Structure formats: structure tokens, C-alpha cells
């Protein structure tokens, strides 16, 4: 394929960049600040240094216009809440006294004040802080962060484009503040919010901004006519301002649908649209509305969410088609690169040829620059890059790591009977209650206990050869003994072994399954200072040997109370990995489910009576468009049932979900046919319990009563109050008592106190129940 140069030289840009630094310097500085070891000034200096290094690296790579404002201490939606002055009343005094400390109080809470609710950013594993609004909310402009970061970039001699969350998406992400009467729609505040955005845009123009990007990813979801009308009004008003920079409205993650013609007609100077596989129909839709004559199109053709190398020739073909649809076409990744690790080149444990299949943020930046060069100067200018890219793509296609005939034959032989328990729930629950003999309101935890510095050091010592396997395993056994003893003393009813041996709930399993690759430095932000290393699901999946049985059975040998076996479910194994893109997700999920089914069967054979298969990503992975959801939910729930479908009736199957909006998937939760489900509920004030009740959910549930993403210790009275709220929706015979999520990220002092209060609250509320 040969292409001619574009009429106007295409430029390269990105929507955002990883924030943490090569060695997670930002995480370390923020946590040091929380602990009092790092001053606020030192934290700010670290952040400024990371921003400067990112911009300079982007510019050196050939990015013509660097993003500003995407950097965050915790979350860019929380930054927007500060920018528009929508600080909740309970946090205003803290913010007024110390802006930085108050910012973190909104994110994490304090002992006396609850944080903002946290949930998933669309269908990613990034978590944002949900804005709380009410009919009396008064917005006030605070552009200091945006202006400061733009000024920093311009001082380096760079062309910079501030990136803000757009006003429509901000309001669509918001929720009514606690206590606001039902029926309040935050979008009704749009006319009150737009003047604040106008003021911020004017300030950015005065600071030197030529363009400002307004991100509107909420538009790729199904939107009502009223919402589309609000969108048109928002950009009519903002576009009609005279004192503003040029506006680039960006959307990503899926196709725009009915929002595209609205944006195409809006009086803004440019659009940034996703043209990757997830949103490929945007190309035809843009042509159907007549393109963007006289406007700038930022064509996002490099996948900003997965780590596989781009097909450069395919992307160039799409870019060539787009050239006639806009006044100028620039090239970008599909979304902020915060969703991928920083640099594949530093990985030393992945075979070099396989490493060439991978593109992290720095590699994606080079792909964007290469495509812009090819679009501007023709394919001859990037001939060597195209040849190398073709070779890399071909080597992946024929590699034996991607195809295992035995795995494929087993998956093809699955029958409908394999995906269903042999007995209905009514029979199973009777057998389980007789076998387990648990009290009303049984107490448990989600699985993990605090990962101490000693545990992390032990793993590091083992990797470095400073200790042997025997010494390491004795440390793990000692930790399990301590965890079991604490749970027995505290009075928990169903125990866990604490997962001391696990580095991560997905990576731990990925390292023991064929077809997965693990990184050493592939950190990605999940929320705040919580970073994960998603493994890479590169080929066909199987389980060579048991993964958890030894530690679970050891823990069970220490107690007469039931100890849960703990596994990560097939959908979450996909969602929290960088999953292969060369076959349907349903096929990959079935392979993972069969590997996990082997583990479930071995746990049961070893005497484990309660087995939890976590699926926190089931809602997260829900397609953004309603039309795409039935097919996804069909294979996702089938994969869970394939994992658990072979156990006896007296084996109790649990699952767990957290930090998502569950109302959309209550029927799918039902379809999992788990015996018990635990869900996040503390920050959302037991909303999920009411949703389960409205659906008529027939099985047992544990809506969380302890918010583990905050350092505060809920009192026994507070926890009992949440339990009483839960009992208004779920009968006592089906209600469990548990935290929102695993305790890995918490410290031992707060964990001990919180769980002691949780057990005390359960005993108090049990005592209030009518005698049976």
C-alpha cells in the first residue's frame, strides 16, 4: 500500500499520559504525605517534576501538542469537582483550612467525615470519585490547577492543550447528594454550570491556551433526547463565547451514535473521535453527517486501553479515508494513556520477540507519531516502520503460544449441562445450612487481609534469592496462622486464609496458568495511589496444577470453622488483564472458566465447603451500549456457571462484586446462580440491597457495611445502622455481614478495630431480631 502525503501536515497528540512516574514516584510521595513523612511542598515539587518529565518526553518523541490538566494527585473527576466549586458541604471546612488535605479528605474520608462515593470510569478498571450535587448547589470557578499546569508547559516552550472533563459528562456522572429527594437530576444544573466553564475557558485563554479539550465520554452511552438537547445547548453556549480558546470536544470508548450529528453541528472548532475497533462505526457515521468541513478532526486510531501493537497499515487506511472529511486531520490514541503501563522496553522477563507485540504508553506515543508522519508525508517516509510492524503482527499470528489444540478441543466439547448446578437453589440451601450450621447474619470478610511490608519484603527476598522457598513458605504459614487466630478471636463465622501469598488477585493466578505473560514494571492506576500490574493474556489458557489448594487446606487445618477457598472469576481474569484481541472474548472466557473449574473441583475434593469466585468486573465490563449487553451477559454468566457448575449441593458458592453500579445487572447477578453474593454498599448507603429486593433476588447476599477504601474505622453503632438498613430490603435469613471488599490495602490497626466493630454490630442486630 502506498499513500500520498496529506494536503495539510498531520500532527500527533495524546489525550493524557500515565501519572505515576517510572518508579511510581507519585504514589510514594502521596503516601509519604499522608503519613507525615513528606511535606506538602515536597509533594508538589515531585508532581511538578513528573509533569515536566512527561511533557518533555512526549515532545521529544514527536508529539506536537502536549496535554495539560490530565495530571492528578488522585482523580481527574475529583479535580473537576474542585475546579467548579462543587465541594460537598461536609468537606468545605477542611478544604478551606488546607486545600490539599481537604482534597484527600474528599477522596479518602477522615475518621469523622465520609468520603465521596467511588465507582468505575465507564467500562475501565479506573475508579473516579462521584460528584455529589443537589438543587441548591452553587458552582464557582477555581481554574488554578488548570492555569498553573498550562503555564508550566508553556514555560518549557511547548505547544499545550488543557484537557477538562466536559460539563455534560460531569453532570451525567454526578449523583444526588445524600438526603436529596428522589427524582433530582443533576443535569438540570447545566445552565448554572456553563457560566463557570465560560469563566475557566476565558482564564485559560488569558494564560495562553490556543485550544482546550473538553472530554465527553458519556456520549458513547445511550442518551435520551433530553440529554442530547442539553448537549446541543451546552456547546451552543460555549461555542458562542467570544472570550475563549478554540474548542476540541473529545469522546472515546465506543461509538457516538445519536450524539455525533449534534457535535458535528456544534459551533466548536474540532472533534476528537475514537476510530479503533471498539468504535469503528464512527467513521461511516461521520461520513453520513457530511464530515467536519472547516474543522479539525483528531482521529484516534491507536488503542489507548490495550497493549497490542497497532496495525499501522490498517490505521493509515482509515486515516486516508478521513482526510476528505475535515479541514485537517491529526492523529492520537483513542483515550488517555493512563490506562496502559508506561514503557514496555524496561521489561526484561518477556521473550524479545513477544515483547515486540506489545505497546505501552511510550510505544503508543511512537505509533501515533509514526502514523502522523505517514499521513503527512506518505508511506515511503515510514516504509521501515511498516515493514517491521508487518513482521511483528505475523509472528504473533503463527506463534505456538497463541494456539493450544487440546485447550480448544476441551472448550468446544462444553455442553449446557456443564454450565448448571445439578440441584436447584432450594435444595442446595437446605444442604448447606445443615452442613455449615451458621447463625443468622453470618459474618465473614471478602478474602484478603493486610499486605504488610514484611510480606512484600519476603516476596522481594525470594525473587532476589536472599531467602529460599522453604523460608518464604514458612513466613506465609506464620501469617496464615496469625490471620486465622485473629478471626477466631474476633468471632467471625466464615474465615479466610488472608491471601498472604498473593501479589494480586489476577496476577497470582495468571502466573500459574499457561497463555499468560506477567510484567515486572507494568503498573496501571486503579484508583488514587492503588496501582496494579495487569497480566497479559496472550494465548490459550490451561491450568497445569492446583493453584490455591495447599494454602486453603492448611488454613482449614487450623480451625473448626469453615475457611473459604478464594478464586478470581473468569470475567475478572479477562477484564483485569490486557486480553488477547485475536479471538472473541467469549472464547477466551470459556478457556479461563475451564481452568478455574479444575481448581474449584480440587478445592472441594480437599474438603473446602465454601468457595468464593470473585467477579468484581462483571458490571465494569458491561458494554456501554444497551444493544450490546445481552450477548455479553450471556457468555459472562455462562463462564461463571461453567466454573462452579460441578460442585455438590452442600458446597456453598460465593461471589463478590464491588465499586460499580449494580442496578443494570441484577438479572445477570441472579443468573450466576451463586449461593451467596457480597457487594460494595457502604458508600452508596445500601443502594444495592434495595436493588436486589426490587428484583426479587432469591438467594443470600452480603451488602458491605465497612468501606475499605477509606482509612476511617466505622463504629459498631454506624455498622449496626447499615445492617438495619440492609434488613429493610433483605430478610435476616438471607443477609450476610461483611466489608465492601478485600482488606489488602488497609493497615492492621484499622482492620482489627473495624472487624471487631463489624462482629459487635452483627451480634447487636441479631439480638434485636424476633425469636424464631
Topology:
Elements (H helix, E strand, L loop, with lengths): L24 H10 L5 H22 L4 E3 L7 H8 L5 H9 L1 H10 L9 E3 L6 E3 L2 E2 L10 H12 L4 E6 L1 H7 L1 E2 L13 H17 L4 E5 L9 H15 L6 E5 L8 H7 L4 E5 L6 H8 L3 E11 L9 H11 L3 E8 L18 H4 L5 H17 L5 H16 L6 H8 L12 H12 L16 H12 L4 H22 L16 H4 L3 E4 L6 E4 L2 E3 L3 E7 L6 H8 L7 E5 L1 H6 L2 E2 L5 H21 L4 E5 L14 H16 L7 E6 L8 H6 L4 E4 L7 H9 L4 E4 L12 H12 L20 H21 L4
Parallel strand pairs: 1-5, 4-6, 5-7, 7-8, 8-9, 9-10, 10-11, 15-17, 16-18, 18-19, 19-20, 20-21
Antiparallel strand pairs: 2-3, 12-15, 13-14
Helix pairs in contact: 1-2, 4-5, 8-9, 12-14, 16-23, 18-19, 23-24, 27-28
Kindly summarize this structure in a few lines.
This protein has 772 residues and is α/β, with parallel strands linked by helices. The chain has a 7-stranded parallel beta sheet. A 5-stranded parallel beta sheet has the order 16-18-19-20-21.
Please describe the structure with a list of short key phrases separated by commas or semicolons.
single chain, 772 residues, alpha/beta, seven-stranded parallel beta sheet, five-stranded parallel beta sheet, 28 helices, 43% helix, 13% strand
By DSSP (H or I, 4+ residues per run), the number of helices equals: 28
Task: Enumerate the strands of the largest sheet in spatial order, edge to edge or round the barrel.
Answer: 1-5-7-8-9-10-11
Oligomer, anyone? single chain
Approximate strand percentage: 5-15%
Please outline the major beta sheet: 7 strands, parallel
Q: Radius of gyration over alpha carbons?
A: 26 Å
Q: Give the N-terminus to C-terminus distance in angstroms.
A: 78 Å
